[in-house]
Design goal:
The complex is a heterodimer of chains A (about 110) and B (about 120). Chain A is mainly beta and about 110 residues long. Chain A contains no helices and nine strands. In chain A, a hairpin with a 6-residue loop joins strand 4 (about 35-40) and strand 5. In chain B, strands 2, 4, 5, 6, 9, 10 and 11 form a seven-stranded mixed sheet that branches. A four-stranded antiparallel sheet of chain B has the order 1-3-8-7, with no helix packed on it. The mean pLDDT of chain B is about 95. The chains are: A mainly beta (about 110), B mainly beta (about 120). The interface between A and B is medium-sized, with 23 and 22 residues.
């Protein structure tokens, strides 16, 4: 069973700052199946990144993903007001596609 | 492309609910579909999957034997029958469409329907 652990649980930043979110897998996984989702309050999750580093359709280039093996990172280069949300990583290369527990990016 | 869930509500422990997801703009036939829930204070959990050919269904350990996923291609709807509900089933339930193919990201999500299990 693959378990994804995200850190930190919450990060407090100001608009314009850089956000770096971590997702660690309990065992080495293929980067071809690692995704990141954004969930704003009261909204459904939205696919941001797939295959660890590919942006989904319509996602701004301030969002980038990287990593391999057990360590993956989502970077938001300059936070916009609409980026304050919860972010989840997911490994979709196995049954029941596990998610991390989420990182909340809040306004400082 | 849109998914709209319905059927959530307040139910007593031990009770049943049937969630439904109406799909528009695409056919369910070509996609694996999932029910994903977000419980208070917890992360997202995929509780059930049905493959595009209807030949396989998968359930999380926590719901196996109590939940049943199904779909009606003629109506283009996805259902989740939930029996023997427990307080820890309280969550927002999302209907999710996987991109066509196998082992693809979850590209389309419904707005969710809230299930509260409480006496």
């Amino acid at each position: 069973e693959i378990v994804l652990t995200q850190s930190p649980g919450t990060m407090s930043l100001s608009p314009g700052e850089r956000a770096t979110l971590s997702c660690r897998a309990s065992q080495s996984v293929s980067s071809s199946y690692l995704a990141w989702y954004q969930q704003r309050p009261g909204q459904a999750p939205r696919l941001l990144i797939y295959a660890a580093s590919s942006r989904a359709t319509g996602i701004p280039d301030r969002f980038s993903g990287s990593g391999s093996g057990t360590d993956f990172t989502l970077t938001i280069s300059r936070l916009e007001p609409e980026d304050f949300a919860v972010y989840f990583c997911q490994y979709y290369g196995t049954s029941l596609q596990p998610f991390g527990q989420g990182t909340k990016v809040e306004i400082k | 492309v849109q998914l709209v869930e319905s059927g959530g509500g307040l139910v007593q422990p031990g009770g049943s609910l049937r969630l439904s997801c109406s799909a528009s703009g695409f056919s369910l036939r070509g996609h694996h579909m999932h029910w994903v829930r977000l419980a208070p204070g917890k992360g997202l959990t995929c509780v059930s999957t049905i493959t595009s050919d209807d030949l396989n269904t998968v359930y999380a350990d926590s719901v196996r034997g109590r939940f049943t996923i199904s779909r009606d291609i003629s109506k283009n709807t996805l259902d989740l029958q939930m029996n023997s509900l427990r307080s820890d089933d309280t969550a927002v339930y999302y209907c999710v469409k996987e991109e066509a193919g196998n082992w693809k990201p979850f590209e389309t999500w419904g707005q969710g329907t809230l299930v509260i299990v409480s006496s």
